[in-house]
Amino acid sequence: MSDAVVIIPTYNEKENVERMTRKVMSLEKDFHILFVDDSSPDGTATIIRHLMDEFPGRIFLEERRGKLGLGTAYIHGFKWAINRKYDYIFEMDCDFSHNPDDLIRLYKACAEGGADLSIGSRYTKGGKVENWPMKRLLLSFFASIYVRMILWISIRDTTAGFKCYKRNVLETINLDGNTFKGYAFQICMKYAAVRHGFKAKEVPITFIDRIYGESKMSTSIFKEAFIGVWKMRTMKL
């Protein structure tokens, strides 16, 4: 039984899901993967089921009806992982914008480095972004500054979605209180952890924009985050 599970939400990721699985399975540490698939019409879940046969006891699939959003997918995955007593619970995208090799570094930051939450950070010293247009890079960078100013947290990459939590962090946070779906969800999880007194550590990564598949980003996700940070200050987290 591994002590670590990587939660990967999927929607139309047939180009990436097998490559991602084989890469994580090849790492020197034994990670499990939980895919939370929102009824992908492209057959993503079918590919995952074949991989489950090839890697029994290491790959898991939770299928949901309809496209219900990133935030609810992670909440579903967190509860699944908590019930199965994993000590280290990860968030990661399926599109290789997050390098699976960095899972080891995030794990060590929590297991050996004293962090309760480790964050794969684009904006801490040593972190960087590749293949993003300058407009999007600046928007993301200044969005993190905006969040830090409102919530008074020191995390530099507030919207990062590549993270490792110790289980007790997720057991402490009011998961059902975080109803956001996109960037706001990621911000809210970090804010809740810090507000409960947990130690967050940023680990520099290189973020690479997806090559295969379509981005799930939309204007509504940015609007949710812009307004949502004000709500977070009074939410029961």
TrEMBL record:
Entry's Gene Ontology molecular function annotations: dolichyl-phosphate beta-D-mannosyltransferase activity
Pfam annotation, one family: Glycos_transf_2
Keywords for this protein: Glycosyltransferase, Transferase
CDD domains reported in the protein's UniProt record: DPM1_like (cd06442)
Entries under InterPro entries matching the protein: DPM1-like, Glyco_trans_2-like, Nucleotide-diphossugar_trans
Source organism superkingdom: Bacteria
Cellular component aspect of the GO annotation: membrane
Gene Ontology biological-process entries: glycolipid biosynthetic process
Domain called Glycosyltransferase 2-like: residue spans: 6-172
UniProt signal peptide: none
Entry's family note: Belongs to the glycosyltransferase 2 family.
Name of this chain's protein: Polyprenol monophosphomannose synthase
Native source species: Taishania pollutisoli
